[in-house]
Amino acid sequence: TSTISFDNASKIGSYFVHIQNTNKMKSCIFVTTLITSAAAFAPTQKAGPITSLSAANNKFASEIGAQAPLGFYDPMGFLASEDQVQFDWIREAEIKHGRISMLAVVGYLTTYSGVRIPGMEDIPSGFGVFDISLYKSDLAVANVEWTLVTLLILETVFVKDAYLLAEHPGDYLNGLKIGRWDSRPDAYKIDQRAKELNNGRAAMMGILGLMVHESLGNVDELLQFLK
Fold it and tell me: By C-alpha distance, which of 115, 99, 155, 108 is closest to 130?
């Protein structure tokens, strides 16, 4: 017969606890992603259920984005005071982060599939791109510098309501008239804005999911179709 020491038993126990916690984390991420995906691609014509009586009376309960399956969802009470300035700030932040996340997901999948610009051939895909020690060639350094300059110009000049002419949060046209958009009926504009908002929400969960799975080391199992 053989015996297992107390230390070995502890190590084995810790190992199974780690596996259990990892599986729980994956399950939570999976369920959260399903809920967010359902919200993102649900029909935009009708608002979803109201979560409470106070929410039902909130003036923002019928705003764009309050739709099935969650409806007007404000569990932290950020909009309980019905402050229009507060709502506009939160909505603009949500739209902006959604747009950035959509670009991030597309960029992640593009580089993961092997696409590179000149000078960046040796840069890995995923979040390993933030390792500055990898940028050794002059062209790679120049690419990073010009990317940062472009982002700075966009953030300080273009991607903002510079002249206070926005018709709604996230409107960065700054008075520029676009015929194809301006000539559309209001119902079409509301529908398109809702789709952008929901796709942004899905993208925020998507890039977060990619971050988690990359840290867990199993992102290759999820993105086999890109290899």
Answer: 108
Rounded Cα–Cα distance for residues 195 and 209 (Å):
21
Phi then psi dihedrals of residue 67, to 5 deg: -145, 170
Residue 106 and residue 202 in contact, taking contact as beta carbons nearer than 8 Å: no
The per-residue pLDDT for range 146-158, each reduced to its tens digit, is: 999 999 999 998 8
Q: Which residues of 129-139 are buried (b: 16+ CB within 10 A; e: fewer)?
A: beeeeebeeee
| Coil/strand/helix, residue 71 | strand
Contact 79, 85 (CB under 8 A): no
pTM listed for this prediction: 0.73
Residue 114 in tokens: 């092997």
CB distance 94 to 199 below 8 Å: no
- Assess contact for 47 and 67: CB atoms under 8 A: yes
Mean pLDDT of the chain: 81
Rounded distance between C-alpha atoms, residue 84 and residue 60, angstroms: 9
Half-sphere exposure of 214 (CA within 13 A, CB side): 15
DSSP for 86-147, written as a single string: HHHHHHHHHHHHHHHHHHHHHHHHHHHTT---TT-TTSPSGGGGG-GGG--SHHHHHHHHHH
Q: Which residue has the higher pLDDT, 53 or 92?
A: 92
